[in-house]
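Box 3.1 A note on notation
Throughout this textbook, protein chains are presented in two layers. The first layer is the amino acid sequence; the second is a token string describing backbone geometry. Keep the layers aligned when reading.
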Amino acid sequence: MEPFYDDIGQKIEQSAVLNADETGWRLNGITHWLWCFATAKFSYYIITKSRASPVLEAFFGTVFKGILICDFWGAYNKISALAKQRCFYHLFTELVKVDKTNSSLHWKAFRKKLSRLLKDAIRLLNRKDQLESKDYDRLKKRLYKRLDQFLGAPSEDKDAKRLIKRLNRHSNELFTFLEYEGVSPYNNHVEQQLREPVLTRKVSQQNRSEQGVKTQAGLMTLFRSAELHGDNPVETVLSIAKCAIEATVP
């Protein structure tokens, strides 16, 4: 069934909008990484020992011609793309995390402004169909101006300084969803596609051999892609296996 797995990989590489994420996995008890690349119709999984950029370069090359939706993990910085959208959920999670250890007035003022800016951008996206094109563009330009002013303002808080540094590095990857159709400010789709593998991880020892890793990635790809198409995953994979066996029989 490997040709079917490879075919999905090619479709993923050529997609216009792609979500990407990774989570821990084990091979013989040794930490590996399960990568997931997902579109509206396909999910493609790779299990590797590395979580670094060479994994992405081996898959994409150095350039992805579509729009990549991902978190702030450094490996994604090495890949060039038509555009990137960094996940807002990770920013909101970071704000909540810092709230537990930092209650300074400087931090509270910073997080209030950032949270409001991000939420206003999401609200503008939700109102897009209700607005005239010129009004949408005007409000969008206002958001970009607010972002520039926000990132250019000095802060005395160490957590605020850290986040400003990160956001400045990715300032052109925050409002991509306002520029292109079909782009979300969240990376939720691929995280949903990792949910079943994570459940599998909790109730199993994952894999014991390199062949097991290869088979695991292939079957997960076929099962999840069938689900995204609205097909019965078990029947679909059995049908593929039957066709593959018949093709090898003289």
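The chain has a mean pLDDT of 94. The beta strands are 17-27, 30-38, 43-48, 63-70, 80-86.
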